Amino acid sequence: MSQGHRSKGGVEAREAGAQDGRSSRGLRTRRRIVGHATLLMYEKGYSKTSVDEVIRAAGITKGSFYFHFPSKEDLGYAVIENAAAHITHRVRSAMEGEKTPRLRLTAALEEFQRIVAEADCCRGCILGNLALELSNQNEGFREKLSQAFRMMAEVIVEPLEEMKAGGELPEGLDPASFADFAISALEGGIMLSKVTRDPAPMLNSVALLLEHFMAPAAREKRKTAEGRTRNTRREDHVGRGL
Predict the structure, then answer these.
(1) Please, how many CA atoms are within 13 Å of residue 225, restricted to the half-sphere of its CB?
(2) Closest CA to 126 of 30, 38, 31
(3) What is the predicted pLDDT for the residue at 47?
(4) What's the rounded Cα separation, in Å, for the pair 52 and 199?
(5) What CATH number was assigned to the domain covering residues 71-234?
(6) Minimal CA–CA distance to 60: which of 81, 34, 91, 80?
(7) In this structure, are residues 72 and 135 in contact, taking their beta carbons and an 8 Å threshold?
(8) Cα 20 from Cα 141, distance rounded (Å)
(9) Would you give the DSSP letter of residue 242?
(10) Which CATH architecture describes the domain 8-70?
């Protein structure tokens, strides 16, 4: 190979490396913008979060912001997409390694609960908050939020379909409809927890969904244990003359 060819190859390699470096820095900047925007919108809502606040929080220039996001609306879309991807990734990771669809379903519901609890369920769910604020105001946001909730429901549909195919669920049960119900129950419980400043509604929603899919033997064992507890309490009251 001639010296000219070697030099040309070296220049191309350096240019490719520089482009990769710029791409990596750009991706990190974009992620930082979306991360800070998510925190601000979680705390204040979309309408009360300004672009200038996001720029200050992310420590970037206005030019850098508009390079990645032509408008605040585009940033809002990215926040929704990122939140949905983060939630579904965590839930799917929690399901990995579970040997039965019932255990995968249990892992999914418990991980949904864990994600919200970690973020302080009394603040609500970022997707639920944005849905209440924006779905009637902007068709683009409505579509993005609809897609986000469908992503979450699909995670639950998969083990339900496996359970139905294995004869563990009634023949007439529609996995897609029940998955929608599960997401509705979760989001409703989260909303009540936000309003009451009490995590109990969210925890109860998950507990009731999990109980619905407990193995019959486990469910019967739980009922028996609860019955024994009630009987013990009744006997204690009788013994004390109450």
Answers:
(1) 6
(2) 38
(3) 95
(4) 33
(5) 1.10.357.10
(6) 34
(7) no
(8) 32
(9) -
(10) Orthogonal Bundle (1.10)
